[in-house]
Amino acid sequence: FTDGLDRWELAGSFLAAGRPHWQDYSRAAADGTAVLASAVPEPSGFAVLFQEIYADDYRGRTVTFRGQLRTAGVAGQAGLHLAAGRPVDPPGAHLRDRGGSSLTGPGSSDWTWHEVTLPVPGDAGIIRFGISLAGRGRIELRNPELSPARPETQE
After folding, report:
1. In terms of C-beta density within 10 A (0-12 exposed, 13-18 middle, 19 or more buried), how is residue 119 classed?
2. What letter does residue 137 receive in the DSSP assignment?
């Protein structure tokens, strides 16, 4: 996150709720850590802070997204998200319907490594990776990595 949140987007079902819910979640970056947090006591829906890349180099392969997560006061679920699909798919629905996740439960946790692995379809146009939060709380991500899974060796 040397460039802060450049090229990272905030999306999710909370945006469909319209005003006043379009400000229910906030995002920030500092010291190599991305933060997604509820901005009101009872936020609507869920939020996803993600980056999107072209899938050209990953089609037909398996990718892994990993990073360290820390949570505080999570009332619902929070975690890593990884999805592959068409660029026209809405980010929230796309991540929930065709992606994978590494979810934490309610409460708070110290820095812990999480990862999620996903096969990228041969017709995928994009890969989206990031963090999500449903409900009240805060999730932080540091040391993110997106990489092709290592090929399995045959014995």
Report:
1. middle
2. -
Given the structure tokens 């820390």, which residue do they identify?
70
- The pLDDT confidence band at residue 11, using thresholds 50, 70 and 90, is confident
DSSP state string for 59-81: TTSEEEEEEEEEEEEESSEEEEE
Q: Which residues contact 25 (CB under 8 A, 6 or more apart)?
A: 10, 12, 14, 36, 37, 38, 39, 43, 47, 133
pTM recorded for the entire structure: 0.83
Query: Which residue from 151, 73, 83 is spatially nearest to 117, judged by alpha carbons?
Result: 83
Give CA–CA dist 144/153, Å, rounded. Answer: 26
